[in-house]
Specification:
The protein contains three helices and two strands. The chain is an alpha+beta fold and 84 residues long. It has one domain. The protein has a two-stranded antiparallel sheet. The radius of gyration is 15 Å and the shape is globular. The mean pLDDT is 82.
């Protein structure tokens, strides 16, 4: 369940990470199977996505000539929003 939650969180920022789907393919494949095995390969995938999320250039000065969009996500556990 925690891997699925991480995938959902990371997917929220997929546009900021080049080749996101290719990098996440191993974790996605493991979630499709009946049992999840945490291996060195899945650990490397997890660490790679964490590093890319940390280093992704997601902050920039706004361009007021463009339309602003608010992306929201809510659940029983919390609410989050991103201005894009």
């Amino acid at each position: 369940m925690k891997v699925r939650n991480f995938h959902v969180l990371a997917s929220f920022y997929h546009r900021c990470i080049k080749d996101f789907s290719s990098i996440m393919a191993l974790l996605i494949e493991c979630m499709k199977k009946g049992s999840f095995q945490w291996t060195r390969a899945t650990q490397r995938t997890f660490q790679t996505i964490k590093d890319k999320l940390h280093l992704a250039p997601i902050f920039a000065l706004p361009n007021f000539d463009l339309i602003f969009k608010v992306e929201c996500d809510a659940s029983d556990a919390g609410v989050r929003a991103v201005l894009t």
